[in-house]
Amino acid sequence: MSRIVESLKKLNVENDAESYRQDNDRINKKVELTLSLEERVSLNQNDYILSVYGTQSEPEFRIGAALSDHSCIIYSVGESLNRTIMLDHNQSPIVGIKFSPISKNVLYIATNDGLITACDLRAKGKVVAEFKDNTENGKIKPLASFDLSCDERLIVGGTEHTSGDAFILFWDIRQSNSKLENKNSLLGGYWESHMDDITCLTFHPVKRNVLVSGSTDGLMNIFDLTQSSEDLALTCSLNTESSVDRLGWLTDDSLWCTTHTQTLQLWECESASAYATFARSDLAMSQNDDPDNCYLVRFHATNAFGQPFVLAGSSTVKGENLKCLNIKKNRLETYYEIVGNKQIVRDSWMHEKSGSLVTVGEKGTVNIWRQMESSIQQNSSHKLLTKIGTDRDRHHRTKPY
């Protein structure tokens, strides 16, 4: 995480002129990611893939692909892409999937009908635990997002706006009554911090009691879960003045988020300010790109390719383009061309050790992209970025309510 702080948050270049020139040359060459593995997950042309998540195990790793038909397909990835298990117990749309942070054999699936299930992949995907909130006369609150703490002790679910409130619900995974019994393992919840659907929840990668939430109400809220009340737990409220689609941690005190209007924002939590904002028009990398047909997939706060990058796509008459963009001198630039993409991409995930970028999308295809041997970077720091965001408009409220 500290390396990402230096390359993204501070964004100060201290390289000498020769090093800067060499790195600049590399960017201008538009190095490519090439298709390594590909799999169509369903024979039904109407099935598309909503999301993807994987394990960081090696040399082989696992990925799960959540489909629009409510099923989830598990693959083992190495030199080939092998389908291992199909999970079809879900009764409503999948809103998220996550592998256990401490076991590659346990997969959690959250669905819109208010249910989160834990599946044991060693037992052919058997559901071994369920988490739901049936405290209100048995009425289940529809989920829109969920996450697991880094030590797999807490599970959190974010609901749609329902009955006048949007809830953040907490369960203790360790409680024995979370097993398949007619008991409720709900620890409690928050319902005063958001006024609309909670679209994303992300625990801190190393601090198990720190959580950030994002909502269509435009707010990103950071909570300290050790506090005794929701009001005390809310340590920071950031107003994106948009509708939050996805978010994640850059560092201990900075965040990235993408919005439903296809903008990328980088935030400094302590100062409650966005130090970089990129609009949809910034995604157009060539004259053939119509900004209205450009879209953001996900920001990847990883140094697996040398520095963090944003994955973005565009639809043209010639096909579906996909690129990795980096941040340089207050603008986005092409970092990697991705050759051979044929679908609108809905989600992506990165296997750190192998440098494998996994994408999924609307044609129901899993694609795995890797660097060409000649383009593998020798220097993983790539301190290319100059300070950004200092001259941008920062008119926004930090405590809108």
Automatic annotation (TrEMBL):
Keywords of this entry: Repeat, WD repeat
InterPro entries reported for this sequence: WD40/YVTN_repeat-like_dom_sf, WD40_repeat_dom_sf, WD40_rpt, WDR89
Cleavable signal peptide: none
Segments forming a coiled coil: none
WD repeats: 191-233
Record's protein name: WD repeat-containing protein 89
Organism for this UniProt entry: Atta cephalotes (Leafcutter ant)
